Amino acid sequence: MPHFGFILASYLSSIAIMAAIALWLFLDNRKQKGALRALEARGVRRRSDPASKRSVTPHTAAQVTE
């Protein structure tokens, strides 16, 4: 039992670090969703949105002929 304090401190610090990371992820998720809402309000659409699919296909170097 002489190492109980060290073990307890290790577990508590690990829990505190994981809680801080979880909080950071939660807050960042809210920030990113807010940024997406702002972009969509300005008319910018997601590429994965079926309504914004374009009939133009991107050109690649292999498709370009000289």
Describe the protein in words.
With 66 residues, the protein is mainly alpha-helical. The protein contains 1 helix and no strands. The radius of gyration is 24 Å and the shape is rod-shaped.
Helix content: 55-70%
Name the poorly predicted regions: none
Largest sheet: none
**Structural class computed from helices and strand pairing:** mainly alpha
CA-atom Rg in angstroms: 24 Å
Span between N and C termini?
78 Å
Average pLDDT reading: 83
Give the SSE order as H and E letters. Answer: H
Principal-axis shape equals rod-shaped
Beta percentage is under 5%
Quaternary structure annotation: single chain
Task: Summarize the helices and strands and which ones pair or pack.
Elements: H1 4-41
Structure at a glance:
By secondary structure, the chain is mainly α. The chain has 1 helix and no strands. The longest helix has 38 residues.
Label this structure with key terms.
66 residues, mainly alpha
